[in-house]
Amino acid sequence: MKKKLLSVLLTGAMAASMFVGCGTSTETTDNSAPASTDTATESTDGGAAAATGKKVGVAMPTKDLQRWNQDGENMQKELEAAGYEVELQYASNDTQTQISQIETMINDGCDVLVIAAIEASSLGEAMDMAAEQNIPVIAYDRLIMNTDAVSYYATFDNKKVGEVQGQYIVDTLGLDVSDTSKTYTMEITAGDPGDNNANFFYSGAMEVLDQYIDAGIIEIKSGQREFSDVATAQWATEKAQSRMENILSTYYADGTDLDICLCSNDSTALGVENALAANYNGQYPIITGQDCDIENTKNMIAGKQSMSVFKDTRTLASQVVKMVGQILNGEKVDVNDTETYDNGNKVVESFLCEPKFADVNNYKELLIDSGYYTEDQLQ
After folding, report:
1. Which of 65, 63, 53 is nearest to 89 (CA)?
2. φ and ψ at 281, to 5 degrees?
């Protein structure tokens, strides 16, 4: 298989649709609660002024993934700039710790909760407590399942993330379902089964690629195609690496080339890249990712990862701050999706930010010129 680079970001409607705007480290628990400013300030998007003296609790899953560090920092910065007191906590990827932290936030008098759940269906106790206290909850980038207590959901268009990854593979290889003269091998590395988003990423990509698999143009030699077979607990790099090492030794040790590695995000892609470096001598595959983590962006520059879907956490943070202000001021809350995200109890009104396509051709404009990273960080 000879891989082609896209001469433009994505062809046709694909490129147009992606360029609209909204992602691992030592673990610590952030117990700080910065003091509230005395005067409410206007939100960064020009929306309503923050309600004076209000407190917002922000619960993040872990500091083990780069993106959650960035999300937490961006959220705290944006909320404090808008005039709120912020209680930010990281839960070391432990659900009981997160439940305890959320309950503490409620007892500390938080007026709104912003929660990125570790396990989507395991926050029932804390959600019941928030409902009893009439505290609005914004699910942040991971939908909280099986509860009526979630008021709103703010995230990226997660299905589109997968669609971008799948379409990149189709466009790069020039796949045509009617042309079976060339075949390619592929292995899939999906995300955490406890994260509702992982299903959207996977299903978005597979809706693009299924027809080529069914036609025999793409072959999954391991036979591992279903989400339950390819999921990676906690999005862990080491778990993705171990699984890929097993696949390589079992199905590709005879010299068969692995042409495509569909990876749902950058932490799983990094595990796959580590496994390839240690256990694979064939032609290097296409590798997809998501989040534009620093190590993966370096690998993208070095040709070890083909692309990543960029989700600018600054955009998402700004939107959530706007929603917090609208809630606390009794205003209509901006949403742009009222049909897609059913958490088992209700369809949660949502605001979806658009992901952006990134590769070696545009990462400077997207990541450096925008101030997301400095050039030194990617050296």
Report:
1. 63
2. -120, 5
Residue for token digits 């610590």?
28
For residue 321, give both structure tokens. Answer: 């701050």
- Report which of 92, 143, 82 is spatially closest to residue 337, judged by C-alpha positions: 143
Q: Are 65 and 235 in contact (CB under 8 A)?
A: yes
Would you say 213 and 224 are in contact if contact means Cβ atoms under 8 Å apart? no
- Statement: 55-156+312-348 belongs to CATH 3.30.930.10: no
Q: Are β-strands 308-310 and 356-358 bridged in parallel, bridged antiparallel, or unpaired?
A: antiparallel
Give per-residue pLDDT as tens, 214-237.
999 999 999 999 999 999 999 999
Note the helical H segments in the chain: 12-18, 66-81, 95-107, 124-132, 158-173, 196-214, 227-230, 237-251, 266-279, 294-301, 313-328, 363
CATH fold match for the domains 55-156+312-348 and 159-310: yes
Tokens 């892609």 — which residue?
269
Query: Where do we find the tokens 């949660």?
Result: 348
Spatial distance between the Cα atoms of 291 and 82, rounded to a whole number of angstroms: 26
Listed by start position, the domains of the chain span: 55-156+312-348, 159-310
Instruction: Compute the distance between CA of residue 303 and CA of residue 72 in angstroms, rounded to an integer.
Output: 30
Helix (H, G, I), strand (E, B) or coil at 128: helix
Q: List the alpha helices (DSSP H) in 302-368.
A: 313-328, 363
pLDDT reported for residue 273 = 98
- Quickly name the fold that domain 159-310 has: Rossmann fold (3.40.50)
Contact 336, 319 (CB under 8 A): no
Residue-wise pLDDT tens digits, 31-60: 333 333 333 333 334 334 455 689 999 999
Q: Do 311 and 291 contact (CB within 8 A), yes or no?
A: yes
Q: For residue 154, give the nearest of 293, 19, 292, 315 by alpha carbon.
A: 315
Residues lower than pLDDT 50 in the chain: 1-49
- Which structure tokens are listed for 33? 């609660």
State the Cα–Cα distance between residues 41 and 44, nearest whole angstrom: 9
Q: What is the mean pLDDT of the chain?
A: 88
